[in-house]
């Protein structure tokens, strides 16, 4: 994960901001009136604070807390406290390192934000004795300590969020698959399972009264209803629109926007309010300043907080132009000492401009103080160190805005991609449900209908034989009910030998003469299962769609492959019960093992041949590429299908 460019950007921004804020603190210490020895101590304390922050808060790719993080926080708290006491007139921004560390390392969030607020309050109290007004002390606590803490927290936490989104894309897809399996298991139980249980109870009641006349019409109706229910469930589940639920992802995008907006407001507003309070404006000027400041912040947020797809705002040139006008026009009323939001324009230009123009415009704006020095703005120290400080001050804020906007845009794109991946996985699972219901369960239901039809035809002339057919039908119903489990969780191991014996019995009962040998030899479980499914589906289609009198079932093994062949002489409508899911489904299963399947009519004969190499091309996954996520197993003695809830669903 650490190789992703967006994570490298986040880690670079976090480190660069920490160094930039540290440089600002260094300049404040150098410019202070403290004795040289005291300033050396302050520089050492600040260096230790920055080093601890880089060690503990420039996050690893997994966002985990480093070893000995508690000790690191304790040391940061000690260094910050000493700085507040000994260097109260210059230490205010450095307290933000501790505030950020508390937000990044303390759990739960409520406790972390409480600690953050406590640091801001303590900084306010420490600034009161050395500042002329409460407003000045409040500015230092909010405009420096709170801003530095939020800025460092935002970039580091956004890197965590990007990592989380990357790593949970597959987890979300798996959760959606589990959710689909749970829903499918419930639907199978409520509709098909319920029909099967009613049919079994009805048949058992008939068999329990051997001396009463057979009334098999209702049993046949129930069998056909169960088959229709299965088809309906398969069609409905396959075609239903999938809307994945991912509340954590939506919360992530909202959280990113909230943190970014808070950082921007703390970056712009306190500075403007502080300088306005120093001058003493009239009532009208205060209203005008508030309106201009609100409009500028609104333009800034509109330009720097991208749309959900991460693109620039539709009218971004107008937004950038409006921000530039607002940065200049109020200077007709206010002196530059009051209205100097032009320092924040590089953040907007870095976000909204592209190519060389971005740097041609942004770099001069970052170095604006060197130009404004000739305007006699008197906002800072005109020395080389002072001008360097102003450039770093403006540049680090531009970098913060650029990182926040890029992280927010990336987060929005990742959320969309993650939702699409979950949607695709859920749709794929729905298709697998429908296909397996057709391939595996449809055979048993077809046999069930056949048995009930035979019993009904025999009821008038051979009651004993009719009861035997009904009993066999009930047995098939019980087996089919048990197979609901394998359909919901994914098909389980089947064997060609078992399916061939069942197919011979069913075809013989239907009056079809069966010939051919089944000699597959030892097969791996996947090949055996797929060929068994092909055999079952082939016999099911034969019973449903042909008027066959003779059928050949053959399975033979060569040195390189195993071949299944089903031939019948009753070509009718060579079709599929569920469009696109019968023969195409079988081709997909066989093809996943590197084999091939052909189905063709030749005169009055229909031939289905499946060949699979003895070393399948696909090992370790099913033909869908869908691994089991949620188990589905029989619940109580009524054979109700119950899908186990995953932790994500609870």
UniProtKB/TrEMBL annotation:
Domain of life where this protein originates: Bacteria
Gene3D superfamilies cross-referenced by the UniProt entry: 1.20.5.1930, Histidine kinase-like ATPase, C-terminal domain
Keywords: Kinase, Membrane, Transferase, Transmembrane, Transmembrane helix, Two-component regulatory system
Keyword Transmembrane helix: yes
TM regions (residue ranges): 12-30, 36-55, 67-88, 111-130, 137-156, 251-273, 285-303, 315-345, 357-377
Presence of keyword Transferase: yes
CDD domains, alphabetized: HATPase_UhpB-NarQ-NarX-like
Protein name: Two-component system, NarL family, sensor histidine kinase DesK
Organism from which the protein derives: Asanoa ishikariensis
Taxon lineage: Bacteria, Bacillati, Actinomycetota, Actinomycetes, Micromonosporales
């Amino acid at each position: 994960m650490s190789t992703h460019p967006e994570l490298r950007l986040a880690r670079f921004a976090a480190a660069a901001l920490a160094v930039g804020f540290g440089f600002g603190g260094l300049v404040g210490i150098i410019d202070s009136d403290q004795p040289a020895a005291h300033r050396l101590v302050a520089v050492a304390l600040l260096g230790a604070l920055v080093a601890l922050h880089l060690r503990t808060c420039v996050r690893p790719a997994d966002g985990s807390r480093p070893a000995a993080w508690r000790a690191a926080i304790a040391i940061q708290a000690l260094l910050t406290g000493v700085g507040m006491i000994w260097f109260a007139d210059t230490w205010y921004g450095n307290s933000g390192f501790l505030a950020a560390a508390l937000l990044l390392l303390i759990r739960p969030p409520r406790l972390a934000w409480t600690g953050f607020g406590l640091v801001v309050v303590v900084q306010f109290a420490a600034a009161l004795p050395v500042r002329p007004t409460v407003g000045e002390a409040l500015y230092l606590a909010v405009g420096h300590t709170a801003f530095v803490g939020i800025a460092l927290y935002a970039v580091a936490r956004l890197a965590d969020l990007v990592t989380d989104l990357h790593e949970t894309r597959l987890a979300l897809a798996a959760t959606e698959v589990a959710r689909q399996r749970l829903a499918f298991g419930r639907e199978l139980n409520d509709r098909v399972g319920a029909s099967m249980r009613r049919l079994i109870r009805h048949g058992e009641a008939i068999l329990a009264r051997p001396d009463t006349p057979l009334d098999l019409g209702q049993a046949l109706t129930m069998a056909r209803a169960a088959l229709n229910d299965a088809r309906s469930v398969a069609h409905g589940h396959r075609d239903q629109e999938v809307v994945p639920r991912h509340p954590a992802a939506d919360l992530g995008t909202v959280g990113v926007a909230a943190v970014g907006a808070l950082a921007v407001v703390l970056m712009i507003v306190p500075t403007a309010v502080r300088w306005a309070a120093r001058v003493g404006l009239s009532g009208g000027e205060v209203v005008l300043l508030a309106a201009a400041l609100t409009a500028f912040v609104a333009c800034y947020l509109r330009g720097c907080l991208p749309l959900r797809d991460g693109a620039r705002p539709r009218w971004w040139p107008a937004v950038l132009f409006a921000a530039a006008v607002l940065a200049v026009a109020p200077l007709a009323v206010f002196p530059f000492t009051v209205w100097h939001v032009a320092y924040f324009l590089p953040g907007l230009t870095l976000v909204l401009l592209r190519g060389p123009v971005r740097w041609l415009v942004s770099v001069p704006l970052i170095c604006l103080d060197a130009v404004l020095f000739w305007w006699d703005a008197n906002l800072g120290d005109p020395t080389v160190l002072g001008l360097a400080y102003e450039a770093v001050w403006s540049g680090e804020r531009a970098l913060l805005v650029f990182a926040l906007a890029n992280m927010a845009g990336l987060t929005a794109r990742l959320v969309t991609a993650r939702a699409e991946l979950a949607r695709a996985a859920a749709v794929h699972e729905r298709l697998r449900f429908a296909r397996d219901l057709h391939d595996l369960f449809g055979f048993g239901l077809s046999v069930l209908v056949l048995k009930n039809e035979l019993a009904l035809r025999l009821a008038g002339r051979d009651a004993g034989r009719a009861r035997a057919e009904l009993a066999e039908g009930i047995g098939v119903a019980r087996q089919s009910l048990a197979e609901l489990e394998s359909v919901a969780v994914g098909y389980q191991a089947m064997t060609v030998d078992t399916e061939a014996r069942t197919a011979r019995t069913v075809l013989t009962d239907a009056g079809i003469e069966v010939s051919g040998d089944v000699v597959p030899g030892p097969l791996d479980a996947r090949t055996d299962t797929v060929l068994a499914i092909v055999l079952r589906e082939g016999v099911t289609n034969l019973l449903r769609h042909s008027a066959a009198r003779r059928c050949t079932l053959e399975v033979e093994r060569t040195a390189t492959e195993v071949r299944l062949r089903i031939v019948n002489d009753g070509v009718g409508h060579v079709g599929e019960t569920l469009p696109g899911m019968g023969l195409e489904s079988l081709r997909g299963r066989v093809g996943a093992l590197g084999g091939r399947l052909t189905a063709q009519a030749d005169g009055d004969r229909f031939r289905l041949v499946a060949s699979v190499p003895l070393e399948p091309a696909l090992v370790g996954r099913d033909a869908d590429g869908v691994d089991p996520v949620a188990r589905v197993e029989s619940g109580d003695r009524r054979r109700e299908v119950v899908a186990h809830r995953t932790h994500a669903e609870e």
